[in-house]
Amino acid sequence: MQNNFTKDEIKEIIQWDVKNWKNALPFWDAHFAVKSGMKVLAIGEREGGLSFYFAKLGCEVWCTDYNEMPAVTQKMHEDKGVSSRIHYKKVDMRSIDFEDETFDVVVFKSVIGALGKKKDQDQSIDEIRRVLKTGGALLMAENAQASKFHQKARKKFINWANRWRYITNEDLQFWASGFSKSRFKAHGFSALFGRSEKQRSALASFDKVISPLTPKKWKYIYFGVFIK
Fold first, then answer.
1. Which CATH superfamily is domain 2-227 in?
2. Model confidence pLDDT, tens digit, residues 112-170
C-alpha cells in the first residue's frame, strides 16, 4: 500500500534515515492486510507520520504520544486532508487507557527503546496485546542492538543513547510467545553511521548491496508483525 504515497509523503511518514526505515511499510503489507475502516492505535506519534499513513488508507486512527500532541502535527494532518479520521490522546504505552480488544492495529516506530528498561518494554507489549482485537496486529519498526561498532557509535554521537534500551532478537522471540503468529526481519547496517540524511541515503544504497552478506545480529533495525 506504500505505492499509494508520493516520495515526499514517504519522507514525512518515515522522517529520518528514510531509505532504510521505509522498508517497514512493504514488510508490514506482506504479512498483514490493512483494510479501510480498521481502528488503529499509533504510539509515539509526536510528528504524526504513521497516523497520516493509516488515515490515508481509510483507517480510523488514534494518534497518541506520552506528551501533548504539538499543534504542528494536527496542522499537518489538516493540510493532508485526513484530520477527520484522526483522534488525539496522551498515552503511556505501559498502561494504555483503552478497553480490551479495541484496535485492529497497533503501530509504532522507534519508540519502545525510549522506555529504557526491559520490564517496561515487556509490560508495554502486554498492554498492546490486551487492546488488540483477536486477529489484530502489532506492526513495529524499532532500533536493534546491532553490532559493537553501532553501540560505540551511538554512545559517541547520540545524546540519548545511554538512556535507550536497544532491542534484541531474544526480546522479539519473547514477545512473540504471547501472539498466535509473528514475523520479523533485521535490516540496515552502514546507514546508521551517516551524519546527515544525504549520507544516510547514500549508505542505505550500499546496505541494499551488502545486506545478503551482513549477519542479522549486526543490523540496526527490526521490523515486526505480531498477530494476536
1. Vaccinia Virus protein VP39 (3.40.50.150)
2. 999 999 999 999 999 999 999 999 999 999 999 999 999 998 988 888 888 999 999 99
Return the domain boundaries, the chain. Answer: 2-227
User: Treating both helix axes as pointing N-terminal to C-terminal, what angle do 71-80 and 49-56 enclose, rounded to 10 degrees?
Assistant: 30
- Return the pLDDT at 99: 98
Helix, strand or coil for residue 24? helix
- Helix then strand count (H, E) for the chain reads 9, 7
Q: Return the beta strands (E) in the chain as ranges.
A: 39-43, 60-65, 86-90, 103-109, 132-143, 181-187, 221-227
User: Rounded CA gap, 24 and 26, in Å?
Assistant: 6
Q: What is the pTM of this model?
A: 0.96
Nearest to 114 by CA among 160, 49, 51: 160
3-state SS of the chain: helix, strand, coil percent to 5?
45, 25, 30
Whose CA is closest to 53, among 100, 6, 97, 20?
6
Q: Alpha carbon of 140 to those of 45, 68, 121: distances in Å?
A: 13, 22, 13
Q: Which residue has the cell 509473528?
A: 182
